[in-house]
Amino acid sequence: MAAADVPRTDQQKQVNAHFDAEASYWQAVYDDPSLQGVIYRDRQRAVLAQVVELALPSDARVLEIGCGAGFLTVELARSGYAIQAVDASQAMVDLTARRAQQMDLAARVRAQVGDVHRLPFGNGAFTLVVAVGLLPWLHRPAQALEEIARVLEPAGRLLLTADNRARLNTWVDPRASLLLAPLKRVRRRLRRGPSAGASSRLHFPSHVNSLLRAAGFQLDARSTVGFGPFSFWSQPLLPDSSGIALHERLQRLADHGVPVFRSSGWHYLVSAHKAPGR
């Protein structure tokens, strides 16, 4: 292994350790009545709606990368597909397998540990890849997307989400200002040092689009999901009940394509397909 690869390996270990330690949170958050729980459930519904629109054949081969606690996995399996679920965290893989068994869907779900940067599958093995909440944690997103393209069949489909750097709640709180982002990154590095724990990354939708095109994808549909929580100097502006009501109003505007709102949700969702000749 080259010396330049060592920091990347360390970073992946930090991500794995983070999700191993936070497994109980991800097991609970999708049932949580908080605004965060509502937004995660809305994101999942948006992804499932995209799957329905794809009208895949019943024998479609589906790969979910970053399966987490298995909530989306079992919903995909309920749709009748056989799901290959992969996560870099053993704790998450265990939760997915357990949830599939609890829902009597174990026969349709195979969960295993795997690294999206080096997937253990052959070329063209899948009809659809679903990668929800994966991109923010990748240390080599371009390599990961190339791997996803490799394991997709010709014209295979991809559903992917990213945490939106241009989301609306960053406009309200000076501490979340995009202008301060470079300074905050430097301060975190100086404070934490080289052994800092894992942290997620935000991406502008335009950057995500560029990464996808460079990896050989053509974009089909784009949307954003989730508004809030809103804060000012890191102090919450609204109680959860009001925050949920505001999120729902803003989400309706986004879903109707109203400018500004359609591109400023928390999660950026892209539907794409593998370009011809790739």
Features of this protein?
9 strands, alpha/beta, 10 helices, seven-stranded mixed beta sheet, single chain, 278 residues, Rossmann fold, globular, disordered N terminus
Identify the CATH homologous superfamily.
Vaccinia Virus protein VP39
Question: Looking at CATH, which topology would you report?
Answer: Rossmann fold
Q: Give the amount of beta strand, in percent.
A: 15-25%
Rg is 19 Å
Number of strands: 9
How many helices? The count is 10
Largest sheet: 7 strands, mixed
CATH class: Alpha Beta
Task: Give a structural overview.
The protein is an alpha/beta fold. It has a single domain, classed as Vaccinia Virus protein VP39 (Rossmann fold, 3-Layer(aba) Sandwich). It is built from ten helices and nine strands. A seven-stranded mixed beta sheet has the order 3-2-1-4-5-9-6, with helices on both faces. The N terminus is likely disordered.
Map the helices and strands.
Elements: H1 5-21, H2 23-29, H3 35-54, E1 61-65, H4 71-78, E2 82-87, H5 90-102, E3 109-113, E4 126-131, H6 141-151, E5 152-163, H7 169-172, H8 181-192, H9 205-214, E6 217-225, E7 231-232, E8 235-236, H10 240-255, E9 267-274
Parallel strand pairs: 1-2, 1-4, 2-3, 4-5
Antiparallel strand pairs: 5-9, 6-9, 7-8
Brief overview, please?
With 278 residues, the protein is an alpha/beta fold. The chain has ten helices and nine strands.
